[in-house]
Amino acid sequence: MAVADLPKPGNDPHEQIVLTAVDEFLAWGKENSLFYLLFATACCGIELMQAGGPRYDVDRLGMIPRATPRQADLMIVAGTITHKMAGVVRTLWEQMTEPRWVVSMGSCANSGGPFSKWSYSVLNGVDKYVPVDVYIPGCPPRPEALIDGVMALRERVRRYRTMGVRDRDPHVVQGADCRFGSHPGKPEPQA
Amino acid sequence: MTIEAITLGGERMQLNMGPHHPATHGVLRIRVESDGEIVSSCIPDHGYLHRSIEKIGECIEWPMFVPYTDRVDYVCAMNANLAYCVAVEKLLNTDPATAVVVPRRAECIRVLVAELNRISSHLIAVGAMAMDVGAYTPFLHGIAQREHVNDIFEKLCGQRLTYNYVTVGGVAFDLHETASEEIASFLDQFEKEMVRFNKLITTNTIFRDRCANLAVVTAAEAIAWGLVGPNLRGSGVDWDLRRDEPYGLYGELGVRVPKGERYAGRKGAVGDCYDRYIVRLLEIQESVRLCREVLKLLPPAAGKANDPIGGHQADVSKVLKRPPKGFVHCRTEAPRGEMGYFLVSDGTKVPYRVRVRTGSFSAAGIFHKVMRGIFLADVVAVIGSFDVVVPEIDR
Predict the structure, then answer these.
(1) CA distances (Å), B133 to each of A26, B203, B256, in order?
(2) Which ipTM was obtained for this model?
(3) What CATH number does the domain containing A113 carry?
(4) Which of A52-66, A164-178, B46-60 has the lowest mean pLDDT?
């Protein structure tokens, strides 16, 4: 359908007015303005930056980086957390105002990742210090996977705002693998 | 604003920058002591991202360490891969029985990916520096171009950031069929885009005046403090390992080395923030030229039967079970300067010691020297101009 054929909003009040519950309206606003804390520690931070860049553009989801935790709703833990850093993460989380949400981005924040076995200084999972709502696997995850995780989080925000229910079971993003197409290391898809 | 003005006394203020601060490029903590608006001391506090990568090197086999080199410097993971693999090859070549010959096509691909990654790394560096002094748009232009490099790498090896592509004795995969055309077309459109980037920020008077004559490091100081890479060249020292101690294919390519020449004009000085910034831009241009040269040199792919890249791998993995005893230090030119690997082998399949020396570490060392006497607001500009990446400091 061409743009010209689309019905134009007229003066008919049925097209101008949407009736909804106040809670749902507020929830709609809240889930579309998840300000995230600019908190990048390691490799995933570069992917977080690229997710904010022109191609993936998380601004269109109402996600705007904030430099101070007091203005942020969402903490995306992007990167390795060491034992020295863990207390700082906890402090930052405590400085955020309720309701606050945490996305653990990448294997290091989920479980220590490649450093979990041999490293003496890496915290094996940021969930030992802060409660995590969404886990995103990958080393580092693609920006699409991050956006997938954020969409899952928005569902939670809406449920919390409309029903007052806060899910305690964390959500794990599935299939955060390469979707670009074929490359030499990727097995051919089975028909 | 001179240092004498500070020593007059008065109340000092302790300011704690980081570890969570948007302008410290990660989790660098800097303890700044200021007298009013003037910084009187500035001491970096490292270790917030110490992931014990060197210790891990002593626990795992030689080829298994390559993915960890990605994490030493994730902004230029290809160069970090290359640095380690060149060092291991140098170790293997100390004994004729275990000598490794890298196929010429693999050498070409190595230089190609290293220079492409240098472009994308410097884009982050100059974009982030512009962002730190308040110009947000150039950073987005840099990120947009970086995406194109990531696309090329993703088709090449399946990853966008941590590639694990360069291996000991070659590279992991051959170039895909359309890679040469894709890279060539990227380089063409990238050069046009850089003209726009320069119009946006490089020739911008506000930016230039802000960075001119700021945190000047003279050539003698740069050498004394052990600065490397673009920070060293920004001070006017003509030194580049790709030209002066060539490894791989770089000896044939004739790398032209830019250096700081008081680009900011009358207001500037050799070795100020603007010189370091311009040197990075000139290195991007040089990398574009090198990529084009390598694409011309690239020999045709061998047939499947004796594929120089895949077929070579089996021999190397056997040799790496019993490498020669001894130690070797090998340094390469990464975007943030010399990346040196010191490897000690006791003849087993596990390294005895893996030591990494990186450019950001020495750059962070000079902070308290150059920060004295500058304005507090300029601290982020100086950090940006040295292009510090924190895991390179902490490892």
Answers:
(1) 37, 15, 30
(2) 0.82
(3) 3.40.50.12280
(4) A164-178
Is there a domain that residue A20 lies in?
no
Q: How large is the average pLDDT for residues B5-28?
A: 72
Range(s) of the domain holding residue A156: 34-164
Given an 8 Å threshold on Cβ–Cβ distance, is A54 in contact with B391? no
Residues B392 and B360: beta-carbon distance below 8 Å: yes
A185:B52 CB<8 A: no
Task: Provide the domain count of chain A.
Answer: 1
Burial, A127: exposed, middle or buried (Cβ in 10 Å; 0-12, 13-18, 19+)? middle
Which two tokens mark B286? 């040089």
Q: How confident is the model over B219-268, as pLDDT tens digits?
A: 898 899 888 989 999 888 888 888 888 888 888 888 888 888 888 778 88
A–B interface: beta-carbon pairs under 8 A:
121
Residue of A36, A38, A46 to mutate, testing the B interface (most B Cβ within 10 Å of its Cβ): A46
Contact B147 A50 (CB under 8 A): yes
**Domains identified in chain B and CATH numbers:** 51-357 (1.10.645.10)
**Is residue A169 in a domain?**
no
The amino acid that residue B269 corresponds to is A
From the list B20, B67, B74, the residue facing A42 with the nearest CB is B74
